[in-house]
């Protein structure tokens, strides 16, 4: 399946239909039918694109298959990595995330805000 041009929010339903149709004749990859989506010609790298790709993966999984991305642009690969979708929407030929973004610590490991900090207003402060 080849995706080209910008992907807009309204494109998701028809793309999901294309995935379901393609899964009807998709070969089994270790028991799971796979649709390879060539995204090399996708020109948009935004959340609408990410949403459409995620919906396509969900439609594929509901139909008993999956999608794999072929040749994502570096910007799309980075967006997938930053948002954590690189594990869900795996690209062909990639061993791991590879986005260059490293998440340090979990949210529960962050320091709590300091409760003793209070803001005061000085009488000579200009109004904002």
Topology:
Elements: E1 2-5, H1 12-23, E2 28-29, E3 32-42, H2 47-62, E4 65-70, H3 74-83
Parallel strand pairs: 1-3, 3-4
Antiparallel strand pairs: 2-3
Describe this structure in words.
With 128 residues, the protein is an alpha/beta fold. Helices cover 30% and strands 18% of the residues. It has helices spanning 12-23, 47-62, 74-83, and strands at 2-5, 28-29, 32-42, 65-70. α1 (12-23) packs parallel to α2.
Which structural traits does this protein have?
single chain, 128 residues, alpha/beta, 4-stranded mixed β-sheet, 3 helices, 4 strands, 18% strand
Helix content: 25-40%
- Could you tell me the number of beta strands? 4
The helix/strand series, from N terminus to C terminus, equals EHEEHEH
- How many angstroms separate the termini? 55 Å
Give the structure's gist in a few sentences.
With 128 residues, this protein is of the alpha/beta class.
């Amino acid at each position: 399946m080849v995706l080209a041009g910008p992907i807009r929010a309204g494109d998701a339903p028809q793309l999901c239909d294309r995935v379901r149709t393609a899964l009807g004749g998709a070969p089994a990859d270790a028991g799971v039918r796979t649709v390879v989506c060539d995204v090399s010609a996708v020109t948009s790298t935004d959340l609408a694109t990410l949403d459409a790709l995620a919906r396509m993966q969900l439609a594929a999984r509901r139909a008993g298959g999956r999608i794999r991305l072929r040749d994502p642009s570096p910007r799309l690969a980075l967006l997938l990595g930053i948002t954590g979708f690189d594990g869900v929407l795996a690209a062909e030929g990639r061993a791991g995330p590879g986005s260059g973004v490293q998440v340090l610590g979990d949210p529960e490991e962050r320091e709590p805000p300091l409760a003793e900090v209070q803001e005061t207003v000085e009488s000579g402060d200009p109004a904002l």
